[in-house]
Write a structure and sequence with these properties.
Layout: H1 5-50, E1 53-61, E2 67-75, E3 79-84, E4 90-95, E5 98-103, E6 108-113, H2 120-123, E7 134-141, E8 144-151, E9 159-165, E10 170-177, E11 183-193
Antiparallel strand pairs: 1-2, 1-11, 2-3, 3-4, 4-5, 5-6, 7-8, 8-9, 9-10, 10-11
Length: 214
């Protein structure tokens, strides 16, 4: 087959046009994906700015697959109540500084600093996409917006992932990853947003003093 100069130029034009089309297509896809993430960020930021309280049922799946359920109350910033149903019968409360963990069966109480939990980012309502102290990864896939938040310090593996349903926009679940890399997933059901909650919900149970008399 003899390709004359005219045909050669013709083929060059075709190849150049093809590559330009491919580059435009991929740049469009990248731009489209970037726009999608930007829109998702705006939606998440708006959610946090307008979020005042949450009341919901939850199902929790632990690292070993054990399942528990109960009710959760958030009054932001700072207040939390997680009330586990029997047989666990655990109550977790916070009013801004401590997480108070109580076992109703054994009548025991333990306090840990709220800041020691990745969940403190949500409770304290301190999400900042421009924060120098947090690593934030936002993804949007198949109508699910995933927001992974972790602290930069000491390359900690601890983190909190929030998953939102895009339409209608609401919090679907969160995943807490501990220092050992094990994950606990909490599924949110029947959530009610921005309803006024009683401040009494966030007090721990008042266990009676142990009777040491014979």
């Amino acid at each position: 087959m003899i390709i004359n100069k005219k045909n050669e130029n013709y083929f060059k034009i075709i190849w150049v046009s093809l590559w330009v089309t491919i580059l435009i297509f991929f740049n469009f896809q990248i731009s489209k994906a970037s726009d999608k993430v930007n829109i998702s960020q705006l939606k998440v930021e708006k959610f946090f700015k307008t979020l005042k309280s949450i009341k919901a049922n939850f199902i929790q799946v632990g690292p070993s697959g054990n399942v528990s359920s109960g009710k959760i109350y958030l009054d932001l910033p700072g207040k939390l109540r997680i009330d586990y149903e029997k047989p666990n019968d655990i109550l977790i409360t916070s009013k801004g500084f401590w997480l108070t963990i109580q076992n109703r069966n054994s009548k025991t109480t333990n306090n840990i600093p709220l800041d020691s939990s990745p969940f403190s980012i949500l409770i304290k309502k301190k999400l900042d996409f421009d924060s120098k102290f947090l690593t934030i990864d936002l993804k949007n896939k198949s109508g699910i917006i995933s927001l992974k938040i972790s602290k930069r310090e000491n390359n900690s593996v601890e983190g909190l992932t929030l998953e939102f349903l895009e339409n209608p926009f609401n919090l679907k679940k969160w995943i807490i990853e501990d220092t050992f890399g094990e994950s606990t997933t909490v599924l949110i059901q029947k959530a009610v947003y921005n309803e006024k909650l009683s401040h009494l919900l966030f007090f721990p149970d008042d266990f009676p003093e142990p009777n040491n008399s014979d």
